[in-house]
Amino acid sequence: MSRISYKYFSPSIINYKMLRNRELGLKPTLGYSDDIYRKVYSNMDAYLSNIPMQRFTADQGAIFNLEFSLDGKLLVAACEERSVLLFDASDQRQIKKVSEAHCSCVNCVRYVSL
């Protein structure tokens, strides 16, 4: 059986075929995930190149956990050196740092709805 080349079809037809094969439990073709990763990450490179990067000092140590607020506006980071960092998710700006948040490293943070 000959393979059909999809390079001349619209992306919606290719996406439909991919979703249909997934519904049927068929395995993707060899190299398919490489193509997806290339498309996703090449788009991210173009986006990230326009954002001025803010440098952080290493006094918070490694980041063990990230959690978005329930409304998606805030991002909190659990850090190695007993600290918690709070970021504005829309402009990637650090809002607050709690230095002595725990007696040891902070492994996990969660937002709780009351």
TrEMBL record:
Keyword Repeat: yes
Gene Ontology CC entries for this record: Cul4-RING E3 ubiquitin ligase complex
SUPFAM superfamilies: WD40 repeat-like
Keywords: Repeat, WD repeat
Keyword ATP-binding in record: no
Record-given protein name: Uncharacterized protein
Organism: Photinus pyralis
